[in-house]
Amino acid sequence: MTGTFYGLGVGPGPYGLLPVTALEILQTADLIYAPRSRVSPDSVALAALDGLPFPRDRVREVEFLMDGDDTRIGEHYAALAHEIAAHQRAGRSVAYLTIGDAMTYSTLGYLVAALTREAPDLPRRVFPGVTSYATAAALTGFSLGEGKERVLILPCPDDMAALRADILVHDVVALMKVGRRMADVLALLQELGIAEHCALAHRLGLDGEVVLPSLAPAPDPGRLGYLSVVLIRREAPRRFA
Amino acid sequence: MTGTFYGLGVGPGPYGLLPVTALEILQTADLIYAPRSRVSPDSVALAALDGLPFPRDRVREVEFLMDGDDTRIGEHYAALAHEIAAHQRAGRSVAYLTIGDAMTYSTLGYLVAALTREAPDLPRRVFPGVTSYATAAALTGFSLGEGKERVLILPCPDDMAALRADILVHDVVALMKVGRRMADVLALLQELGIAEHCALAHRLGLDGEVVLPSLAPAPDPGRLGYLSVVLIRREAPRRFA
């Protein structure tokens, strides 16, 4: 009997946002791979499972690779897929954690592609999760689309003129991976006169969390960049009388 | 003691995609409002909770209003907010179910705005959920953004020229509420030569579910429109060698 590979979106932060079904998978998997960034001592995906009941002794942390050239990324995920497929062939089920949703700006896509090449015959299932931008929206009462509205999800560009143009032709913009551009983004929102109805979430559920339902007055951008999402509306939301 | 209002995104279909924390809230709430469309005999939100343990006798179905003019929608949600606030003041906690994510093209936004006007002093919390498009992506292995990619979420326009223009300037398009335009959408994807790497999910987890990881050859659009999402990529996905 071969084991199944399960890709699990665990949601952002330890809020218990893991879907019920994904927790059930986690409780029965033989091995749980928890990716960890090279710049962080801990797995953020694992931290998102704080307080939930599942066997910790089955976890193995693996470093994930997001940057680098295509060849290097390809080799990294091919090696990981080779190792996971061997476990599956030995009958062990393998869960792989991914922060937020499974297929949204996630390294899981690379791994699934590598597994498909390595072992197209082995069973795989991916479970979706809750995104950081949906969590930020829930916490701040920010609507991610009403009626015919158009919502753009994008990693923050370096060029603020490009971001300005995107804001002007979409109703809602959810800005991921803001990083060191936070000061420029905040300045742009003030300049456009829309900061009051824009929102921000930083380190959701983690130490140093900041959740702001309005960006007027502008917060200090100092430490707000990493693990932040900014929610932008071109116009103030409709309020039914 | 006043009761708390909880807005809960329950995810699409009975896949157990409700977040763990939302299920805990559901198990303790005094009243559970389950919105039901006027054209449907059952609550799709309630169907998404099939098989999950919570007290069914606390559920009350309410008709929701998505269409109509602003005045009518405003009156509808003001009346609902008035009723819910009275329960909260009597010490009862109230959960309100919403299919998919809580703030993504959801009527919950209207209700939260009405509650804020009716009773700004009463406690409210909104929990995010899993969207239909993230679920469709997980089931079909479709990546919702990699690296610097831009992802557009939008309700399907009537005008296929507008949709074509949107596909050409975004890397990924998740098309909601396709309805009777399904045949036109499928024809456009064939014409653009990208149908092979586009995906579709219809009635996720419900009777008559259809999940297609490729739209070439084109499926029969006949009954695929309602409760469908189409995932579109302008170019074939990168595959690391």
UniProtKB/TrEMBL annotation, chains A, B:
InterPro entries: 4pyrrol_Mease, 4pyrrol_Methylase_sf, 4pyrrole_Mease_sub1, 4pyrrole_Mease_sub2, CobI/CbiL, CobI/CbiL/CobIJ_dom. Keywords: Cobalamin biosynthesis, Methyltransferase, S-adenosyl-L-methionine, Transferase. Pathway: Cofactor biosynthesis; adenosylcobalamin biosynthesis. Residues 4-213 form the Tetrapyrrole methylase domain. It comes from the Bacteria. One of its GO terms (molecular function) is precorrin-2 C20-methyltransferase activity. Signal peptide: none annotated. One of its GO terms (biological process) is methylation. Belongs to the precorrin methyltransferase family. This is Precorrin-2 C(20)-methyltransferase.
